[in-house]
Amino acid sequence: MKRFSLLIIFAASLTASCNKYLDTPTPKTEVVDELVFKDDKNATSAVTGIYISMNSLNYLWGNVMMNFLAGIHADDVYYASAFEDYDVFRQARLLPQSTYVERFWNAIYSYIYTTNACVEGLTASTSLTPAVKDQLLVKPVLCALTSISIS
Predict the structure, then answer these.
(1) 17-33 tens-digit pLDDT
(2) Is the Cα dihedral 84, 90, 91, 95 positive or negative?
(3) Rounded CA separation 52/111 (Å)
(4) Is the backbone of residue 19 left (phi > 0), alpha (psi -120 to 50) or beta?
(5) Positive or negative, the Cα torsion across 79, 82, 83, 88?
(6) C-alpha dihedral over 138, 127, 111, 45, to 10 degrees?
(7) pTM of the complete model
């Protein structure tokens, strides 16, 4: 019985001491979700961050890689090396886990997720000024609709 009670005391002391160890503060480079949409400045920064990230994707994919890889796939571009990541386009062996296919779709779905999180946070926020809230919710949608071309 004495061993059992010592075991319970030992387990209780371990559990109590772990709480402080597990409660870590938010890193200085991140903002807690609840605070992002509390004021106009942070909300604007969150939406602007999406555009900054998408701009780098546009340069890499929209202007360079997408044209190059589509050209390889259509036999419009010839490259004189044996590079497996390009060969899958030339030989029409594309799979979801192909390097460039995976990078492209992972980036796009990451932007969709982040945008949906911003729309949800903006919609739920009660502390943003109506003008900023409308600008952040409506302007991105209009920009996206005007830049999409369906062929």
Answers:
(1) 555 556 666 666 666 66
(2) positive
(3) 11
(4) alpha
(5) positive
(6) 100
(7) 0.62
